[in-house]
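Exercise 7. Given the encoded structure of a 249-residue chain, write a plausible sequence.
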């Protein structure tokens, strides 16, 4: 991809979004945010909801690469939260990106699509292992992964599916990770989050489609096989739990 790109980050004011925005700006990319709230340190930010297709259309104009993070971030009521945000909202974003000529779409999936394998192994979990979704939230991410592949084949758009580890949003989540050996091994620090998404944006233009795991270095047990993440995107985690928790408020 070009050395300096116009990148849209949906969900830019969230914990993952802020980390991605900061690293992209540091590397000299032109970043636009899209969120319910203004994004700290980002002047180009469109305020809107995933139901507002007109606002999404404004956001995708002139964009080379899209990082789609905006969603209900965990299990919630399906009909009132997951369906409008994670399914209908995804439809608006994907169709808007296609119409605007976006060349690369990076979709934030979740390690929850292999939740039960995380409990029992075998390890490390590979991108091509059979899925074992936790519940309805993970099911929406499976839908996302499927439509991402469809856009590769039908529209020729480069799509990277990122099955993310856990980047905590609150101090309560930090405490939950601290209490669990499993969660410490799938921790995703803000610093590594930023580096991963920058690598995905900057990956070679001829990368048509990839499903990769992304997390920080495990403390005890390597849960995810990230060899393809390194090979295809050039991402290597630099941190492990508890690096970066001071950024979580």
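Solution.
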């Amino acid at each position: 991809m070009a050395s300096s790109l116009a990148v849209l980050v949906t969900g830019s004011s969230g914990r993952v979004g802020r980390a991605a925005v900061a690293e992209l700006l540091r590397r000299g990319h032109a970043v636009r945010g899209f969120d319910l709230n203004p994004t700290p340190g980002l002047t180009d930010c469109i305020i809107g909801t995933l139901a507002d297709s007109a606002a999404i259309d404004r956001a995708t104009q002139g964009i080379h690469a899209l990082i789609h993070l905006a969603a209900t971030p965990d299990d919630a009521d399906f009909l009132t939260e997951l369906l409008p945000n994670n399914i209908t909202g995804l439809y608006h974003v994907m169709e808007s990106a296609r119409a605007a000529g976006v060349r690369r779409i990076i979709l934030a999936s979740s390690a929850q699509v292999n939740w039960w394998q995380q409990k029992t192994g075998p390890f490390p979990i590979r991108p091509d292992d059979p899925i074992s979704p936790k519940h309805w939230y993970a099911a929406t991410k499976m839908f996302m992964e499927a439509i991402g592949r469809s856009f590769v084949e039908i529209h020729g758009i480069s799509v990277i599916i990122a099955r993310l580890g856990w980047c905590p949003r609150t101090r309560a989540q930090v405490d939950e990770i601290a209490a669990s050996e499993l969660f410490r091994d799938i921790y995703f620090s803000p610093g590594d989050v930023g580096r991963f998404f920058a690598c995905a944006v900057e990956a070679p233009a001829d990368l048509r489609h990839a499903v990769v795991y992304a997390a920080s270095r495990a403390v005890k047990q390597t849960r995810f096989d990230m060899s393809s993440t390194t090979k295809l995107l050039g991402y290597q985690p630099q941190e492990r739990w508890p690096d970066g928790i001071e950024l979580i408020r």
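Remark. The mean pLDDT is 97. Students should compare their own answers with the one above.
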